[in-house]
């Protein structure tokens, strides 16, 4: 009996050691993989998300170039490639302070003139995706800062306070939600402008599996499957899971069937019109004017391209297909060439670069300082010609 007991005891001890060693091995492996994943994410952020991009010529001669590249690398190293959860509108950016690149309360800083106490100020809100956030330029060269500058030059007797609510990955429906939140928080703009188009095509039309907004798969997978808050926080902080989720969204395949692209473009255009009507009703209720701008991309502009821009356009067109062109054609047909919208403050700024000879693009959607200035000029010209 004692021999049998001793045999069971030894087997139990051996099994316990195996389980303990296995658990210890798994813990060490996970910690090791977590460290490797963190290192990879840090290197991806510095390599992929900094302003040092294919169109290096976009920054030639800029006195702020070295300071800006240093600041943007620091921003990425401090979590600038990630987002901070924000109820209902889903995310905003982590705050950051530096000489040339600043994010305050989750939104990009806009350079506005200093006003005297008692001045009457016109408050302007700008919404959009990463092309409005403008990670590729310093504070003074974002679209929002350039709009502020051009407004003061065009309307010298007025004072404007421009705020940039552009967020990477945002689509126009999200921007309307964010506007609604700002209104509920008591903010009261005089003019609200939206700058959209690329994310609508790149996320909702082009991919073989369209998604409603940026980061959708991450939010869907995590919030659908994880219930406990503690576990959820651990997952959000896991470099390993972030790397896995990022790998699931990278290398997206694009739809090449023209009929499918046309059908999706029609649906996106319908939603875009619905968002415009919703925002205009908010404007009527809260007393602000509205304006909507459909942005250019390297695939839709008639700009005289530099050699770098032309090479990138050829590469992107081969991989991504014609989703941007078909989306733009649909919007032109449904809105800009439609008499029903002829008196609406909706503008196509794809021609903003027609006379720009230098490098405007830093990739196939985002712009350098020359591009942002040209867009701001076009926006303000449209405001003036429409009777603003």
Short description:
By secondary structure, the chain is an alpha/beta fold. 52% of the residues lie in helices and 10% in strands.
Sheet with most strands: strand arrangement: 6-5-7-8-9
Summarize the biggest pleated sheet.
5 strands, parallel
H-E string: HHEEEEEHHEHEHHHHHEHHEH
Please tell me how large the radius of gyration is.
25 Å
- For the termini, the CA-CA separation is 98 Å
Summing up helix and strand content along with how strands pair, one would put the structural category as alpha/beta
Number of domains: 1
Tell me the CATH superfamily: SGNH hydrolase
| Unreliable parts | 45-55, 226-231
Q: Report the average pLDDT across residues.
A: 85
The CATH topology name reads Rossmann fold
Percent of sequence in beta strands: 5-15%
Number of helices: 13
In CATH terms, what is the architecture?
3-Layer(aba) Sandwich
Shape: elongated
Can you tell me the CATH class? Alpha Beta
Q: In which range does the helix fraction lie? A: 40-55%
Give the strand tally. 9
Question: How does this model look, in words?
Answer:
The protein is α/β, with parallel strands linked by helices and 388 residues long. The chain has a single domain, classed as 3-Layer(aba) Sandwich (Rossmann fold), CATH 3.40.50. 52% of the residues lie in helices and 10% in strands. It has 13 helices and nine strands. Strands 6-5-7-8-9 form a five-stranded parallel beta sheet, with helices on both faces. Strands 1-2 form a two-stranded antiparallel sheet. Helix 4 (143-154) crosses helix 13. The chain is elongated. It starts with a helix and ends with a helix. The model is unreliable at 45-55 and 226-231 (pLDDT under 50).
